[in-house]
Write a structure and sequence with these properties.
Length: 334
Amino acid sequence: MRRKYSENDIKMMIELYKEGLSQQQVADKIGCSKGYVEKVLRINNIEGRCKAYYSKQFDDMTENEIIKDYYENNMSIRNLAKKYDCSTAPIVSMFKRRKLSFRDPSSYKTYSINSHYFDEIDTEKKAYMLGFLYADGANCSHKGHYVVSLTLQARDEHILKEFLKEIGSDSPITDFIKKETGVVYKRIQICNKRIIEMLEKYGVVPRKSLITTYPYWLRDDLTRHFLRGLFDGDGSIQSQFGYINFSGSNSLMTSVKEILEEKFNAHVREYNQTGKHPCFKQLFCSKKQDMANILYWLYEDSNIYLNRKYEQYITFKTQNDKYIISCYDNGLAI
């Protein structure tokens, strides 16, 4: 069966191509065919490059400018390619022809990070971050390159700042503009071999959206924090329609359903949305007391959450106080 690629995969294909990689290089990084990359670019109205892009010739003056930019202005090969409107290949070839040395990788700009942050998931914030990465994280690691990215709406930038603070990183938050709509998103990228290897061990793997399974190794007291991260990333509170929902892979949602039914005796409906991949499932809960129990458990006395989801919870709590009071009366453990 032909593999389905997520929206994050497609975004990454477009971004990598715009950064100067060839269609074949993009295909190698994503793990798909060159033809599929070509199709994605065509559908998204991304112009292909002519052959001159990969075999561009420079005059002596331009070559000297490139060399100055590289050594004196500390520009990377990739940024040079952008500036001089070519691929990295002719620039690398020019350096080799002139027998010029490349900078030691250790001289490149690096960002601080606590490489051992995810060695153990043993706190509320670590469990929450793992859940959020399960929902919205994109693992683009391939052939020795280690990177996990998280792209959110601009209004949710506070979560990205919290993530960077937690892992002790001064890495920048960059803008990502969706070409089709012009909407600006915010993105962080975690580029650290140790962290990526641990996240992969926990289930944040490339093309994870349809194969993710629940981390049953997680401590019971961290379950609600993990699920809050998952819910903040891929769930919703639809007060006007009277339901809450989770979404994700079949396996993950089956486990979440079992947890909610066992803990709250909640009535949880499964739904495979038309047009979605058959391995993708949504869970819906519309009984007011079930909604109150779940939301109270997820958000009450929590220390990290998506602000707009928390505000929705507060609105629900205000409008449905009798159901929330029942949570207190029943001694619902959080």
